[in-house]
Design a protein that fits this description.
140 residues; alpha+beta; Ribosomal Protein S5, domain 2; four-stranded mixed beta sheet; 4 helices
Length: 140
């Protein structure tokens, strides 16, 4: 049923940011911007030929959401929005020998609905595209 040219919207373990060393490097050297209700931290690293194009991590602070059920719900919403829209970065990253490490930190005070989360993720990915694309402005 699924053709070979059809894109698969999955989020395998190879695309998750889990290694402590990578996360520490991201928070130490990475850049950040906010798209309410999410703060996005990102950095790039050299990519092996077999490695995925991006790795993503997701966090909801206990200070913002006391109940684990709420934190898990928000992480699930953000992960789903990323999973469905990460392909927008694919063409930009395929041509480069870099791997994008990105971390999404929820900063809101209430549980967002899915359309809001999707809109936020779309804006975040658009900002990532502009920040990662080569600057065509000549320096004088």
């Amino acid at each position: 049923m699924e053709s070979s040219d059809q894109m698969r919207f999955t989020l395998p373990a190879t695309e998750r940011l889990k290694l402590r060393k990578q996360i520490e490097t991201l928070f130490r050297q990475g850049e950040a911007f906010s798209v309410f209700p999410v703060r996005v931290m990102y950095t790039t690293s050299p990519r092996d030929k077999d490695a995925s194009l991006y790795r993503a991590g997701f966090s909801v602070p206990k200070k913002k959401m006391k109940l684990a059920v709420q934190r898990n719900r928000i992480k699930r919403l953000i992960r789903e929005a990323w999973r469905l829209q990460k392909h927008l970065l694919q063409s930009l990253l395929e041509n480069k020998e870099i791997q994008l490490h990105v971390f999404f930190i929820f900063t809101g005070k209430e549980i967002p609905d899915f359309p809001t989360t999707q809109k936020c993720m779309k804006k975040a990915i658009a900002l990532l595209q502009t920040k990662l694309s080569p600057q065509d402005v000549p320096t004088s």
